[in-house]
Design goal:
It is globular, with a radius of gyration of 19 Å. A four-stranded antiparallel sheet has the order 4-5-6-9, with no helix packed on it. The chain has a four-stranded antiparallel sheet with strand order 8-7-10-11, with no helix packed on it. Strands 1-3-2 form a three-stranded antiparallel sheet, with no helix packed on it. By secondary structure, the chain is mostly beta strands. It has no helices and eleven strands. It has two domains: 1-41, no CATH class; 56-168, Histone chaperone ASF1-like (Immunoglobulin-like, Sandwich).
C-alpha cells in the first residue's frame, strides 16, 4: 500500500487539492497527482493467523499460503468473496496479474476477476512478505459454480506464471 500526503483548504474542502512544492531529492518521495508519495506501508496478517493453510507455488517466488470463502455453497446470483493469502518466497521482480475464476462442473469459466493482487504490484513484494488479497466475484443468475480457480499471468503476454490452482466448492 501507499500513503499519500496532499494539501487542501480545511475551510473549503470542496476545492481542489493544492499542489505540493518540494525538492524532489532521491529517496524523499515523488510528487504525483497533487500528492507527495513518501513511502509504502505493508500490513501483514499476524503469524499463524492465515486460515486454511497450504503451500501452493506459483513460479519460483510466489506461494498461496491460505484462503477463505464467504460461503462454500453458491446459488445462482450469489456473490462469492474469496480472500487469498500470498507469500513472496523471494524477489518476484516482475508485475503479474492475479485472477479468480468461478467454474462450472465442466471447468468452464462462469465469472472472473483479474487484477494486480491487492492493488499491490508483485514487483514490489519483499521476500517473506504475506499479502492478503480479497476478490468479490458475482455468480451470474442461472449458473451453478462448483470450483474456484486462481493463479497469475503476465499482463503483457497473457502467459500464465504456473498452472492455476483449483479449490472445490460444495455442490
Amino acid at each position: 500500500g501507499q500513503i499519500a500526503i496532499g494539501l487542501y483548504d480545511a475551510l473549503a474542502p470542496d476545492q481542489p487539492r493544492q499542489s505540493v512544492i518540494a525538492a524532489n531529492n532521491p529517496g524523499t518521495g515523488t510528487i504525483r497527482d497533487h500528492a507527495l508519495h513518501i513511502g509504502q506501508i505493508n500490513i501483514e496478517p499476524p503469524a499463524g493467523e492465515v486460515p486454511n493453510q497450504m503451500a501452493v507455488r506459483f513460479g519460483d517466488n510466489i506461494t498461496l499460503v491460505g484462503y477463505t470463502f464467504s460461503q462454500r455453497r453458491l446459488r445462482p446470483g450469489d456473490t462469492l468473496t474469496v480472500t487469498l493469502y500470498w507469500q513472496a518466497r523471494g524477489a518476484v521482480g516482475k508485475e503479474y496479474t492475479a485472477f479468480v475464476h468461478l467454474l462450472d462442473a465442466n471447468g468452464e469459466i462462469l465469472a472472473q476477476t483479474d487484477r494486480p493482487p491487492a492493488g499491490y504490484p508483485t514487483s514490489d513484494w519483499r521476500p517473506g512478505e504475506c499479502i492478503q488479497d480479497t476478490f468479490v466475484v458475482p455468480l451470474p443468475a442461472g449458473a451453478q459454480s462448483t470450483a474456484v480457480r486462481t493463479g497469475f499471468y503476465d499482463p503483457a503476454t497473457l502467459q500464465p506464471l504456473a498452472e492455476p490452482f483449483v479449490l472445490p466448492l460444495e455442490p
